[in-house]
Structures
1.
Amino acid sequence: GEDVEQSLFLSVREGDSSVINCTYTDSSSTYLYWYKQEPGAGLQLLTYIFSNMDMKQDQRLTVLLNKKDKHLSLRIADTQTGDSAIYFCAESSPDAGSYQLTFGKGTKLSVIP
Amino acid sequence: GAGVSQSPSNKVTEKGKDVELRCDPISGHTALYWYRQRLGQGLEFLIYFQGNSAPDKSGLPSDRFSAERTGESVSTLTIQRTQQEDSAVYLCASSSQLGLGQDTQYFGPGTRLTVL
């Protein structure tokens, strides 16, 4: 079945760039998403990318997609303490029902002042 | 406008009791989803409602779990005879299902369920 893998922890200094990586197994994935979860809060959609794109930029966020290697990354420029949270990669594919998301376990980003 | 809301925010119950969790989706959203998030894990899909179609229950872990939705509004997730392994955060999401190929799911804050 589908699987989404992420490293569990990342620590960066304030002002540096953060890069969170994700790999997925379903080659028929149509959309890939990044969600942010702050303590005690629900998931906030940060950005998404369609599988026929290889890059998407939105202010401080850059998403890179390598479809051949099934690798997705999220780069956060000028990381701030407010960016500390858990970041989830998720994918949807027609096989799972295009409405169903498969999530990774999340990467906990810690920003050191 | 208002986002997805869930109640209660926290629920502590004893093993064997039934619990009912509520989700109010964003007004106008026809699709509603329930997920479970165990400690340190990603989200597990539980059930999906879309309009008047039969719900997709493929993610429900056992027959102790059930969910209902009234029209395109409130949904309740019921867990009967709760077990300690049911302890988790239960998240609800809704989406507009515009049929444009991409359908963003907006999540509520979740209900943290603890079964003693």
2.
Amino acid sequence: DTAVSQTPKYLVTQMGNDKSIKCEQNLGHDTMYWYKQDSKKFLKIMFSYNNKELIINETVPNRFSPKSPDKAHLNLHINSLELGDSAVYFCASQGRVNTEAFFGQGTRLTVV
Amino acid sequence: AQSVTQLDSQVPVFEEAPVELRCNYSSSVSVYLFWYVQYPNQGLQLLLKYLSGSTLVESINGFEAEFNKSQTSFHLRKPSVHISDTAEYFCAVTWMDSSYKLIFGSGTRLLVRP
């Protein structure tokens, strides 16, 4: 069983579309993250949720809206996609702040 | 502002040579420190971590890192690298404050040549 799973793995879409990326963890963790990795491999934190509550929103455009229906899921919805949104998006979960975060395999989003 | 700095974007090295990947962080409070590795087209895997206790921590595949509080550093070292160590290495820090925030450095690409 995959600990942190993201779907889809690849997503190619046109500018202006709305798309969602799903993330699920089966580790029983309280904290989940979304990170964006750009073409230079830089990993930028976007959001952090703890027990379904938004803890961190790192100056991400309003077009990005995370949703956590329960502790095991953190989905990312993106409206009006732009070329600059092209990146790899990683979901991660963490049990306690002093433990390692487990990452999904990433979703490669390409906006054309 | 909290930040993690990896000054070297790429480190080329010959096989069986030693290597050090540098990591520094800003800190006014205590921290938890991590090194992650990312192989091509894959997610991130934990390599090693420092939480407390001995300042020298080791991984199962020969890497080690040393926590230096006075220099706010957590450099990663390996005495003899293999071709298979070629990957992107990320230093990450969680500060012991109220925020649930795991911050990554910009990454260092280790390129091992035969």
